Amino acid sequence: MTLALRVALARAEFALEVTCDIPTRGITGLFGRSASGKTTLLRCIAGLERKARARIEFNGEIWQDQHRFVPAHRRAVGYVFQESSLFPHLDVRGNLEFGLRRVPAGQRRMGFDEAVALLDLSALLRQRAPRLSGGERQRVAIAQALLTSPQLLLMDEPLSNLDQSSKAEILPHLERLRDSAAIPIIYVSHALGEIMRLADHLLLLEAGRVRAAGPLQQLLVREDLPLGHFEDSGCVFDATVEAHDPSYQLTYVRIAAGRLAISLKPVAVGHRIRVRINARDVSLALKPPELTSIANILPATVATLSDDRDPAQTLVRLALGAEPLLARITRRSAAQLGIAPGTQLYALVKSVALMESSARDLTW
Amino acid sequence: MGSADLIALWISFRLAATTTLLLLLLCTPLAWWLAMGASRWRVLVDAVVSLPLVLPPTVLGFYLLILLGPAGSLGGVLQRLGLPAPAFSFSGLVIGSMLYSLPFAVQPLRDAFQSVGARALEAAATLRASPWNRFFTVAVPLASRGILTAVVLSFAHTLGEFGVVLMIGGNIPGRTQTASIALFDHTEALEYGAAYRLSATLVAICFALLLIVYTANRRLRATGLPA
To answer: With an 8 Å Cβ cutoff, are A81 and B142 in contact?
Structure first.
């Protein structure tokens, strides 16, 4: 099940030329600096760019090719625009029902009450759009798009015009959406923090072309991509909450490679959460250290070593089973320990962060 | 008020209503194209549409008379087809009034459609609304203040015109004599009493129209619609 894209469109600042397959499950982050073609690509997928020369095939259904152009209102996509696009002449209920009414009852996959509950809108239904706050507007816009029962949800930097508190208000809703609704989402952002928190796959655009595409975890540790060289470069893991230890204020979560202790979080046992480990918070030891204050120690194998932006440091890519982990250590340490690809060692993780709004957004 | 004056008022009213309705039908697609289109001819069309604003009404009336009269190029063709030439008839008045009031309908409509913007229509498209559906459920409500302005301005402007209708209509009482021409005739004949009554009636009608617009505008603004 894929969205197969071949799109060419000339713009003043760049020429979009994209050929790629996007998996139609989970969240695909569309990442790149401004004027790299993210929004234009999203508009092409939605059918808002008639002039694009494109072949777009969604789960076997052809939306566009040389002979065909399925217009936007006939494509099963929901679109959340960067800035508010709510209709000022309707109240919130009217806005939500606008799309809902246009979908035949038999094709509806989400009901009005369900969308209202998912985005917590029941107190706003009588309000007119111009009176809503920025965060409220985007919540309504997301529910509005969901109520058209899309098979694909396109989100164009839905948080970029919001302040920190509004972002924090919306992100949990997006996570809930990812985990509950079985709708694939393409999420455009230039904030790496948002992408790391939400995305499963990543499509990296540069000057209108695909620089890289693949699972988020794999791309985050690719040395040849600009992603790994942020000061806060690191990895993300999907973990399951295993147990809480209130006496030490700890929560235990399991990732494929083992168990991690994090600060106590009010998340129910069995729930899926995403944690992040920054490269600078990982030290390496050749033997399992005894008598150490570090609680999270995981066996690992060295995959590659690469230069860091800081010439005194080196980035070590480790394999924790199938999942990658980055460690930033000094070049001297790497030499003294004789670390080379294939070395079996132990990763000492000083801190594990739950991905939540506290994670500082990294932007281009 | 004499029966001749009442008939003149009725002709003015019919003329204004017919002109406004036809202008709304004609100018909506034109204004839409001017607001949304990307053609480089738009500047030229914009200028042509605005021409009646600056032309003396008698100039417009004169050209129309030449064109639409029995000896005129278009009028002659119509006559050879067995149809009446539009000059000196109600249909001639309507054609003249439509040309003369054209900018008063097109400009508010064009500005209103421009303020609707592409974003609202794109959002409606992604919410499954077809092009016609987008026009009636998004563009028209969002442009309602501009549409109302266009209607009232066209109506009031047609009611008050003089030069064009005099030239093309020929001041035939009961057929092409409008209220503003009847008023001129009264004044010429020094019938000041009749002139007073007719003037006061026209002032009252125009004031009532403007009152309706401003009240409706205020109400629409209270609902948060863009200007």
So the answer is: no
